[in-house]
Amino acid sequence: MVLVFPELSLKEQISSGLYTPTRGVFVKNYIDQSHEFALCAVALAYPIMMALQAGRMRLAALLAAIAFSLLANMMFVVVSRTALVTMPIMLAVFALLHLKWRTNLIIFCAAAVVSVLAWTASPRLQWTTTTFLRDYQIYKELDQPTSIGSRIEFWQKSLRFIAEAPVIGHGTGSTRGLFELAATGPKVLAGGQVVSNPHNQTLHVAIQWGALGIAVLFALWWRHFLLFRGEGLVAWIGLLVVVQNIFTSLFNSHLFDFHQGWMYVLGVGVAGGMVLGRRHEGSGNHPSTTGA
Fold first, then answer.
1. Domain coverage including residue 192
2. pTM of the predicted structure, to 2 decimals
3. 251 in a domain, yes or no?
4. 149 and 89 housed in the same domain
5. CA 20 to 30 Å from 291, out of 45, 171, 188, 274?
6. Domains in the chain: how many in total?
7. Same domain for 118 and 157
8. Which residues contact 77 (CB under 8 A, 6 or more apart)?
């Protein structure tokens, strides 16, 4: 809707010195929107499968239409490269958990064909994928700060910081100061960039709290992963939130980012509470049976 009527967008951008609505982005920015759309589109795979198994074709068709509309927005309007990389991983998790291997093979072949057709038909998707190599070349040849080039620069420096204090890290809030000391050359070059976030969750934690921090981070992810074992839509949504956060955090510090951080808190919090509540009821430990 906001592609055709950009004035409906709640997000503005500066163009020629004026604030104008951002075409195709309703709120926040295209990165956060892409992550939400990817999460919702893949989450709908489970109720679509259940509706098909129950013979509820109309419901399955409606849910599939919603999922494909989200995917169409990502293919033809705007998409984040992180979402583009991590979405196949989320789909693979669904296939491994809920589909038979023969079905997976058929879907894989179909998905490959659809992906090629979508890439061919979508200039936006072509541009997004080709910028991977372009950004790397610009960084290597001209030392210019690009999305991929800057990440490589941040990660290399982060590993040096971690090696200096591998067990307990440099302390909370130390990241920016370390990058200031490690900056080389003018700020317009990749080597001169100063950031408070190395764009990788594990590195961001390790710089500040070392191996102890990494152990806590991985324990948190693992505990939440185990929480959502089992069947049901709620467990599937919770698992998907955890899986998405783990893999997008390879390229960003999403637990520490406002939007994605709250996506994780709300997703795991609400779904986790519902799962634990159902397990509690199933075990018979509720007031009606305990005499409380």
1. 143-214
2. 0.80
3. no
4. no
5. 274
6. 2
7. no
8. 3, 24, 124
Mean local confidence (pLDDT), 74-94 = 82
- Do 123 and 29 lie in one domain? The reply is yes
- The pair of structure tokens assigned to 46 is 């489970």
**In sequence order, what are the beta bridge partners of 19?**
14
Residue 189 in domain: yes
Q: Are residues 59 and 86 in the same domain?
A: yes
Q: Are residues 61 and 149 in the same domain?
A: no
- Under a CB-based contact definition with an 8 Å cutoff, are residues 221 and 170 in contact? no
- Among candidate residues 227, 249, 246, 248, the one with its CA nearest the CA of residue 238: 227
- Does the structure show a pLDDT above 60 at 30? yes
- For residue 203, give the nearest of 162, 146, 150 by alpha carbon: 162
User: How high is the pLDDT of residue 292?
Assistant: 38
**Using one digit for the tens of pLDDT, what is the confidence trace for 223-242?**
999 999 888 999 999 999 99
DSSP string, the chain: -TTT-GGG-S-EEEETTEEEE-TT--SS-HHHHHHHHHHHHHHTHHHHHHHHHTT-HHHHHHHHHHHHHHHHHHHHT---HHHHHHHHHHHHHHHHHHS-HHHHHHHHHHHHHHHHHHHHH-HHHHHHHHHHHHHHHHHHHH----HHHHHHHHHHHHHHHHHHSTTT-S-TT-HHHHHHHH--S-TTSGGG---S--S-HHHHHHHHHHHHHHHHHHHHHHHHHHHT-SSSHHHHHHHHHHHHHHHHTTTS-TTTSHHHHHHHHHHHHHHHHHHHHHHHHHTT-SHHHH--
Q: How far is CA 6 from CA 9, 24, 121, 284, in A?
A: 5, 7, 23, 53
284, part of any domain: no
**CB-side exposure of 220: number of CA atoms within 13 Å?**
17
